[in-house]
Amino acid sequence: MRQGLFRAAVLLLALIVVSVVATKTTLRGQDDYEVALPAEFFISHLPVDFNTFGGGFPKGTIEDGAVYGWLTFVAIHWPAKKGKRGMQDESLPLNSQADPRVWETYRGRVEIYPGTGKPFDDSQKADDYGFDAPPRYIYDPARVGSYPGLQKGEVPACPGTTPSASVPLHNLDEPNHHQVRSGLSPKEPYPGQQILLESKANRMEYVYVASRGWYGDKSIAEAKKRTGEYVRTNLT
Known about the structure:
This protein has 236 residues and is mainly α. 30% of the residues lie in helices and 2% in strands. The chain contains six helices and two strands. A two-stranded antiparallel ribbon has the order 1-2. The longest helix has 21 residues, at 2-22.
């Protein structure tokens, strides 16, 4: 129920902001101007590119950027297709009560960079490295320990909670993000609780990482090293 209310609030905010953008606004002290939205604004598929039919990004305007951003926002909040991750169910409308939404089905961080092993089975390589497989959250067994009935690296439900019938799509396992210390406990009236985060990646990013073997600590370190070398050589 709480998740449904949150989603409804997000969609309502989107509608309000889009309605404002679609009427009149002021930018950098210029005269009021009107922003023309596409004839079919609330559509399920992601935009192909920024300013696709107007010359691409180099010829794009701030208005084009706003339209591109909202088209993307609407598409990833579309009801997801059953059995698929990151794919819209075009048979349902945006305001459907169906769960989950497209962005919720994206792969979580530890589904891309597991604490041990690979994020896919070898038999899944031809099928986008198993992107559509149900979620599995595997951490470093040396850090999280082992638990009866679970695979090495898996952790049980939090104390005092009832385990889900299936592995949930949301996995709030990050106490900070880009050095933002969100994991610190808030003050009263919620002592002992934490604000946690999750990071998700779409199919394209996941396949890019998995196909290059960049999911292990050693591989990530090598990729970071080569990226640093490229920046120092070509961009400084």
